[in-house]
Write the C-alpha cells for this entry.
Amino acid sequence: MGSNNKFNPLNLCRENVKLLAPYTSARDEYVSNGNKMIFLDANENPNETGVNRYPDPLQRSLRTEMAFLKNVTENQLLFGNGSDEVLDLLFRAFCEPNKDSVITFPPTYGMYGVLAGINSVQVHEIPLTTSFHIDIEGFRNKLDSKAKMLFICSPNNPSGNLMDPKHIEEILQTFEGLVVVDEAYIDFTESQSWSNRLLEFPNLVVIQTLSKAYGLAGIRLGMLMASDQIISILQKIKPPFNVNELTQLKALERLDQKERIQKEVNEIIVERKRLENALKFMPFVKEIFPSEANFVLVRVDQADQSYAQLLDQGIVVRNRSKQLHCENTLRFTVGTPNENKILIETLNKL
Ligand SMILES: *Cc1c(COP(=O)(O)O)cnc(C)c1O
C-alpha cells in the first residue's frame, strides 16, 4: 500500500514487452527540415489520391493540438483506433495471458471484460452498490489480489453517474497496479478530468474518446493520457499506422469548432433534463437514475415489452436488463430535440 513514490510501470509490464524493440517505419527515420522532398522510401504509389502516403505515425499536428487542449504534455498522450484499441494495448503491454488479472466494478462498460477475455486475463469483479457507487470496503478487501489493472468508468456506462472522487483518490493511493479511469463522457459533466493529476499519481491512466461529445464515433479516435513512462511502453507495441490519415484530418477539422461542440453539448444536457422530467410522469417508469452523461438509465415495469414496443415504432434503445443491478432497465441516448420529442410521445402512448 502507498507505494506510489516507488511506482515504476516497467515492474508491471510483460517480460517480452520490456525486451521489445519497436518497429520503425520508413517515415519514422525521416525528420522534415521544411524542404520539399521526393519520397521514395515507403513503396507507396506516387500518384496523388489525397491519401496515397502513409499517415504520420506520431500524429504530430493532432498531438500538438490535443495536448494543448487537454493541458498535458505531448509525451503524456497516445492515440488509438478508438478507445477500444488503447484499452487493448494496455492489456497487451501489462497483462501476462493465463496468469494476470484485472479488477472491474460492474455494471460497467463491457469492453473491459471482453478485452480481458481476448487476452486470456482473469477479471475480479467488485460489484458497484445498487445506487452504482464504488463499494470501497469491497475494494479494500481485494487489495491483496495482485491485479495488474483496475478500471473505473466515470461517468459510468450504463448508469450515468460520476464516481466519488474520494473513492478514486483512495484507489489511486493504495492500488499497486494501473488505475484506468475511463472518461468517455467527461465532456458532459462539470467535473475536472483526472488527467490534471497525472504528476501526482504515476499509476493513473485516463482514457477519453472523440466518439461521444465530439461527435466523431465514425472516425475511430480514442486517446490515453498517462505518465511519459507508461506512454513509452505502449508506444513500443502500438501498430505504427493505427490512426489513419482521414481520421487525423477530420479530428483536426473538428477541433477547430470548439464553440459549436460546446453548443451541442449544452443542448444535449438541456435535452437530457427535459427527457428526465417527462419520464417522471410516466406510470410505467419506476426509477430514473441520476445521469451526468448523454444518456439516461431508467427502470420500467417491463423492460423487454417496452423495448419491443419501441422497436415496433422505429425507435432503438438499449435494453440493459441483463446487467447486474439493472433488472428491467432501458438506456436512452439523448437524441436531437425532435428525436427526443418523438421518443417522449411514443413512450406516452405505450
Ligand atoms: C462509448 C464508450 C467508449 C468509446 O469507445 P470508442 O472505442 O472510443 O468509440 C469508451 N468507454 C466507454 C465507457 C464508452 O461508453
User: Anything to note?
Assistant: The longest strand covers residues 204-209.
